[in-house]
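>> Question from a student workshop board

For tomorrow's exercise we were told to take the sequence and the ligand below, predict the bound structure, and bring the output to class. My setup keeps failing. Could a helper post the expected result so I can at least see what it should look like? The ligand is magnesium ion.
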Amino acid sequence: MITVEKALEIIRENLPEPQFETVGLSDASGRVIAEDVLSDIDMPPFDKSAMDGYAVRSEDIKLPPVELEVLEIVPAGKTPVKEVKPGKAIKIMTGAPVPSGADAVIMVEDTQYEPATRTVRVFKGVKKHVNICFKAEDLKEGDKVVNSDTKLTPQHIGLLAAVGKSRLRAYKYPSITIATTGDELVEITQLRCKMGTAEIRNSNTYSLMAQLNKVGFKPVSLGIIRDDMETLTEKISEGLKGGGADILILTGGVSMGDYDIVEDVLKKLKVDILFNKVAIKPGKPFVFGRASRGGGAGGLIFSLPGNPVSCFVITEVFIKAALSILCADKTIKNQIVQAVLKKPITNTSNRQQYIPARLWETERGQKADRDALWMVEPLASHGSADIVSICRANAFIIVPPDSAPLEAGAVVNTMRLPE
Ligand code: AMP
Ligand code: MG
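>> Workshop helper replied:
Here is what the output should look like for this input. Compare the format with yours to find the bug.
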């Protein structure tokens, strides 16, 4: 049995190099870009009007009201042909190039046009440079607009569009196949588990899919596999080939029971088993391996215990850590915060415990809170099968192995779940 830290280290050491792909800008929000992007233009590309109004010489309207002759009208997208000379103005729309000679734009609200004389009455003065966005004031051609390894927000997407970056190189999401094992399992489309039988609905596939969907992955499910050597071998080898899937996640069949034969099947299929027990509670029987002939991301295999809470916790702690590195996306991994414990934790273990909990933010500086920003309350749970208990949880309190009982008021590391 190895520690959680050691298991994470082994996973990190055995991850393949990240892979890259080209994505269209419309699909790039939330992705991590894998190239620096430079601007191909000045921004703005020319001196541009920030208002609908009149391009003027500010010195002409020092003593308003004044009347100016209107030389032409310049809509956005058109270039002015005339020059603003003393006593003249050019009507201009937002986004149009400011004509030469003008040093300010007076907004249309401060003017009145006289069609008979083709003049405009200006009621207010304007300072030099007002309502003009100057060429290259935001960005110069060749300036870097986005650094490689940035997770793209909608703001970045707008900027990338403005510099004409229609396709870009991004870290590739590994493909993931999920299969669940167990003779007792039935599909949820079956309306009721049959009375008098020992059936259990397959919930792991759904929670796993949802956990991975939440951080941007679209796993494919191979469904339920029965606990016999032949079927398992056939299905798992299909999963390893997996239509090219980079990661295979299995649930169930890795404990000490007579029918827990998944590890044997993996060995038979020449999977390199890198560990098979971790000092974590819940989730001890957790197998991590690498297929000898893997897919693009190296054919990683995460074989998780079948108990729903174990399966959930292992995914949050280990699988997300791996995906976070493969995609260079720190947000995939859960944040660990320090929180003040509201109720004592008396049950201790020689394994690292992940206790379902309710976490909330508090005011900094309250005396009892010892300046911590977070408060956390452990939730009652019947253990690793208690899927009900984790529904109220938005976090897991991490209690290190062989920790003494914790009193209320102690500061504990807590893993936040995604909102
Ligand atoms: P195992 O790890 O195969 O020994 O399974 C441990 C427990 O988890 C058993 O009570 C199983 O019925 C249950 N279990 C296994 N797979 C699933 C699943 N896909 N959905 C819900 N419960 C499961
Ligand atoms: Mg089983």
